[in-house]
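Re: the request from the purification team.
They wanted to know what the chain is likely to look like in 3D before they choose a buffer screen. I agreed to run a prediction and write the result into the notebook, where they can find it.
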Amino acid sequence: MTGPNQTEILLDAGTNELEVLVFKLAEGLFGVNVAKVREVIRYNEPTESPMRHSSVMGMINLRGQVVPMIDLKKHLDIGVADPQDPANRVIITEFNGIRSGYVVDGVDQIHRIKWSDVREAPDVHSIDTSCTDQVPVSSCTGVLEIDGKLVLMLDFESVADAILLSDKLHIDRVDNPDQVDRGSKRVILAEDSPFMRELMQRVLINSGYTGLEVFSNGADAWEAISTTAEDRPIDAVVSDIEMPAMDGLHLCKRIRASRSPEIANLPVVLFSSLISEDNQKKGRQVGASVQIPKPELADVVRLVDKACTGRLDDGQLPMAA
């Protein structure tokens, strides 16, 4: 059973829309951006592998590629997958350069929605999902309602990092060989994932960008940009693509459409797990200055250095120190 054909559901750039694949876990409904989904397959018995994370059931061979298969219910502590359940499906995702399979209790369908209809996950310790247990808010990036039912958008990046661990995400600071006056720069960061937002905020501030302003969605970032940029100049904007209220593509489109030269000419760095060939085209369409895939945190800092000093067009990034 194959899943969504991404060439058929490709959205236009800057429309502030997304496609959500809704799936079932326990008694709850959850969602994932279709842009992260390669396909949906029937459950296959995995081959056990040594020294694996407790949430990894084993490995499967998917057309010549070895893919880890993850028990998503077990990882979220809301049960365990039943290998005998005929409704089981495996969602094959690809983002941050990693392909993984997530076992779920079944898939519903794909829905096209507006990012403005996605609410941020409540800022509380846990959220009732109508499951037998509760899912931590840190595992969610947003909440939406479809056909009268609550759907939680899972933070697959935090799940994948907890299981597969990326050294590129876990750095403390980035050296400053060009002696950029980072502390004097005003940088706007928009990132919806609490997990990624904390990592990015820490590395940017520890690297010297103490004037960093952080927002959890594009709408709040745009409000800060549009109302303050003329009085307090902004040196660079770093934005994720998928975010509640307003996504990064639409944020970039709004920036470029501004009548204020101080806003319209802002350097915009798109930093996303969705930097594919198709999404790079979208980024170019809305006027992104540069696009970089997660999880290259060190490169983000070096790109901000270049953006703040007017050097984004001067060639390759400097080598990591």
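For the purification team: The radius of gyration is 20 Å.
Please add any questions underneath this entry.
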